[in-house]
Amino acid sequence: MFAYVVKRLISGVLVVTLVSIAIFLLFWYGPSSPAQPICDRETSNRCSAAKLEIYERTLGYDNPVYEEYGKYVKGIFVGRTLTIASNEYDCSAPCLGLSFRTKQPVKEELVSRIPATFSIAIGGAFLYLLFGVPIGVAAARRRGTVADKALVSSFLFISSIPYYLFALLTWLYLTITFEVPFFSDTGYFPITQDGPFKWFSGLFLAWVALGIFGCTQYTRFTRGAMVEALSEDYIRTAKAKGLPTRTIVYRHGLRAALVPVVTIFGIDFGTLLAGTIFTERIFEVQGIGWWSLEAVQGRDLPVVQATALFSAVVLIISNLLVDVVYSVLDPRVRLS
Amino acid sequence: MTSVPMTQSSAADRDAHDGPYLQVEDLKVTFPTQDGPVTAVQGLTYSVEKGKTLGIVGESGSGKSVSSMAVMGLHDAKSAQISGSIRVGGTEVVGLSESKMRDLRGNSMAMIFQDALAALHPFYKIGGQLEEAYLVHHSSASKRDARRKAIEMLDRVGIPQPDRRVDDFPHQFSGGMRQRAMIAMGLINDPSLLIADEPTTALDVTVQAQILDLLQDLQREFNSAVIIITHDLGVIAEMADDVLVMYAGRCVEYGTTKQILTAPEMPYTWGLLSSIPDVSASTDARLIPIPGNPPSLLRPPSGCSFHPRCVHSDKVPGDLCSTQLPELLPASSGTAHLKRCHLADPVGVYQSEVLPEIAPELVDELSEETR
Fold first, then answer.
1. Hey, which end of chain B has fewer CB within 10 Å, N or C?
2. Does A113 lie in the same domain as A97?
3. Can you give the residue range of the structural domain that contains A60?
4. What ipTM did this prediction achieve?
5. Which helix (H) or strand (E) holds B272?
6. CA B74 to CA B85: how far, in whole Å?
7. Residue A311 within a domain
8. Where is the signal peptide (chain A) (predicted)?
9. pLDDT for A138-162, tens place per residue?
10. What residue in A sits closest to B111 (Cα-Cα)?
11. Chain A contacts of B110, Cβ < 8 Å?
12. Strand B338-339 and strand B250-256: pairing?
């Protein structure tokens, strides 16, 4: 197990390296000079060829690409001093570059935005698991009844709405039309500054949107896995032993049905942690997702680079965790 | 309704209540489906005494498993309609409440299934699954008692190093050991009735013999009533005292193992006997399969269910076979032997047409006897 985790971590580092190279090359060989966005910004869109040349030179874009990539990687481990035009900026390790817009180290902003994104992800995932799994179990037990069919078809309807539209409608109805008290002032308010109530009420609608949408999906996953598990031979054995129905359904059925659900959840949750662009933008939560959206719109290359790298790291870690948890849940799986 | 005379029983064999431990009378199991009701079992009557073994034989879909699942109450009440009477140790279980049924299941009666790999939960240790079966019927027992009992049972069914293997998962056991563990789980509460549903089907031949021996030993030890469901007449010859041959949900022949194997009177039983490979026969001896396929239970054939596949129906005058269901009547070889067939002289047909095909050497013996 330990050897397996180490092996997976090493291959994870390799993947992150490859991702970082790919991102670096994409910007380097993009359609315009990587210095173009900052030159445009600094000169209020009057970036002459001479000025562009200055930015390219100070940012090192006239050097060979491998040399600059080397500096970038070195900066991550030991920090570096970056020069933009005539100003020097100190960027301590792990240095992910300077934001073109704020001239602040990207890492600091990234760290400051993690709590907002993680708050959304954890709260939303908590809600959809809390409701999705039990509803799925209940539907599987009443499989084929009117209640089951009504539930499955209405949930299928909800989950076929595109998520951004669903989240937008949730926000529109709950804050504008009904002006739900306390919760209409959405956004991220740090629990340490504004207290738990403000934190909770600011994120509540985002959680609800994410929770309802995720719940419809997890109900279907759980129901499917549960229907399959309950038709297995070992369920008949459990019944033949004289076990009570609750034990049969939960200890024998759900235990087996959880394995595929946990697998999907691991991947899903990793995606949420990497940033929920729609949720954050619609509910005005200053998280990583919204930040990356702004960075793309503002052509803030170092920020885009950093958020892409961050997603890669989060997804690799969550995949590794899924595999480890899987081997714990299913004794037949041996990690090697 | 036809009634089956009880097989001979000595007074010593009797339990606290009168009569055989399991008594099934006029059992009928119907499943409503989208294409209409399917009657998987009907008019089934049999009984098993403690210490005795009843073998139920028949093809897939003949109602063997369905009838035994009905005894265990394992059918979903919403999808199966059960009528008739099933008495286990004097208790009527048809219509019994679920909680009372639960007390019987795994306790007074237990069932072991074919394919133990699928029938054991893949995520729980063997020991845990045995302990669970014990604890559910011994609420005052401690976890440690249950574990000791589990190890004891694993030892009893011949698992080597039971105190270590008790912590293995099912996938770490071999096929034969899994079936042994399954048997241990079935017997852990010392049931008076054990139903073994094709317990050796998924095993290779040498292991099959070991498992059958084990079942016989355990039956002698626990003095339980045993039903063994199989399509293998070899298993029947080895294990059973009485045999029930099922076809299309009905009993077509019933008698002692000797009667069924040496003097069968129903063409379907002849067909089963003809399709057994014989190791001692010459290699060019023919296996004679039963022509055709098992009938659809949704639209069962008129008259005798077997008539479309029966090669002897031309010996019955008129179209009796295709219009009238034969009654289950006493056969010529003895009072306990019942058969469901219109043939006027089944013994003659068997000796002159069937026996020469399947066991020519027996014909000679027979003719010597008569001479």
1. C
2. no
3. 2-106
4. 0.86
5. helix B267-274
6. 16
7. no
8. none
9. 999 999 899 999 999 999 999 999 9
10. A240
11. 240-241
12. antiparallel
